[in-house]
Write a structure and sequence with these properties.
By secondary structure, the protein is of the alpha/beta class. About 50% of the residues lie in helices and about 10% in strands. The strands form 2 sheets. The protein has a 6-stranded mixed β-sheet with strand order 1-4-3-2-5-6, with helices on both faces. A hairpin with an 8-residue loop joins strand 7 and strand 8. The termini are far apart. The model has no long low-confidence stretch (mean pLDDT about 95).
């Protein structure tokens, strides 16, 4: 396999200039995320037409010309499960890749498993199997062998053929607009998540009071700032369980903080005054500034109906050649039921919007309204359920 191995800024700029007019740019990245605050980009693999390239992001730490190439108009950008790739691009330029086509999302819209791995899709769509043997490579180490680089390039050289097959199927099924909708929503969600405070994802906070949650929030904010400053994973600064224990004790007293097992770590000692300051800040907040909880009083039957109709959702999706997990979750089904029963938000839930409403939402609403029934056609079939429309009585 012939490829360009780009290890200098001059080579990178020359390469970007040469492929700027290509109609499609397929790319993937290799990165390491377990040791740093943000993922550490190590390699960028690119396929354009018949040309392959590996950009060494360790040897060329400023790969901005590539991200500028990706965001320039006039081409389609092809990735697989490109969340991290999108984040790299947004961090470098503040812009999205041009005309992004994610084959993982496209595959889910024509009935393949979602989310499907690259190797699985490659086998199902092309009958090819990716090479194995370099899955545990430390991509930060240099030099990389030719075998390692060829392995990395396998992640991009099949992207265009898979894209073409999926595009044809989407076109035949009249779902290209669905893909456009999904790609836009997915990119908006990724952008929003980069700015969103995720302190509610601290494990073990269920059941805490608003005041305790305020302590969690302040400690989480300090931990994020300190992790970014030190360029290390946040949990290496302060574990989730210690944040929760500090919140439960609701004390800014240094003696009580030091008494917690786990906070006697040597590297934490110098941060104890700051931890105390964060706790004190949370404890002094006025009630109106405390975190709020979304508590909805909903009838118990919504959960029962949700469990029942979640199975219907799976069957509906399979019949429509859609991956159920790309359409919605059991929680989405409950939201639709609550909405139709007058217990949800004013804004229609996801299953009542766009193509999801056409394929799934309307049918579930007909079931709720008694306009359709569910029956078992063949218990041994992969699709044993049928949804019958009630005929009006004469």
């Amino acid at each position: 396999m012939q490829y360009d191995h780009i290890t200098t800024a001059a080579q990178l700029q020359k390469y970007c200039d040469e492929v700027a007019q290509e109609p499609t740019i397929c790319f993937d990245t290799e990165f390491v995320s377990e040791h740093t605050y943000r993922s550490d980009l190590c390699l960028i693999q690119v396929a354009t037409g018949q040309r392959l390239a590996v950009i060494d992001a360790v040897a060329v730490p400023d790969v901005t010309p590539f991200w500028q190439l990706i965001t320039a108009p006039g081409h389609e950008t092809i990735v697989h499960a490109g969340r991290e790739e999108l984040c790299f691009c947004l961090a470098a330029t503040g812009k999205r890749p041009t005309n992004l086509f994610d084959i993982q999302i496209a595959a889910g819209l024509v009935g393949h498993e979602y989310p499907a791995g690259y190797g699985s899709l490659m086998h199902k769509l092309l009958g090819e199997s990716p090479k194995k043997g370099e899955t545990r490579t430390d991509w930060r180490r240099r030099p990389l062998s030719d075998m390692q680089l060829q392995y990395a390039l396998d992640d991009v050289r099949y992207l265009a053929p898979m894209r073409n097959l999926l595009h044809d199927r989407l076109q035949k099924m009249e779902r290209l607009e669905w893909l456009d909708t999904e790609m836009l929503a997915w990119q908006e969600e990724v952008e929003a998540s980069r700015l969103r405070e995720r302190w509610r994802r601290v494990s073990g906070i269920s059941g805490l009071s608003s005041r305790c949650m305020a302590v969690v929030r302040e400690l989480w904010r300090w931990r994020e700032d300190e992790a970014e400053r030190r360029d290390c994973p946040p949990k290496r600064v302060l574990r989730d369980d210690l944040i929760v224990e500090l919140a439960k004790r609701r004390s800014a007293d240094l003696k009580q903080i030091k008494a917690i097992r786990g906070l006697d770590r040597g590297d934490l000692q110098r941060f104890l005054p700051k931890i105390s300051e964060c706790i004190a800040l949370a404890l002094e907040l006025p009630d109106q500034e405390l975190p709020t909880f979304e508590r909805r009083e909903t009838p118990s039957q919504i959960n029962m109906l949700g469990q029942f109709l979640s199975s219907a959702l799976t069957s509906i999706c399979h019949r429509a050649h859609l991956a159920p997990s790309i359409v919605g979750t059991a929680s989405d089904v409950r939201d639709l039921i609550a909405f139709r029963m007058g217990y949800g938000d004013e804004r229609p839930p996801v299953l009542a919007q766009g193509w999801r409403n056409e394929v799934v939402g309307q049918l579930i609403e007909d079931l709720l309204a008694g306009k359709r029934s569910i029956r078992i056609v063949d218990p041994e079939s992969n699709e044993p359920l049928a949804f019958d429309l009630f005929e009006p009585t004469p």
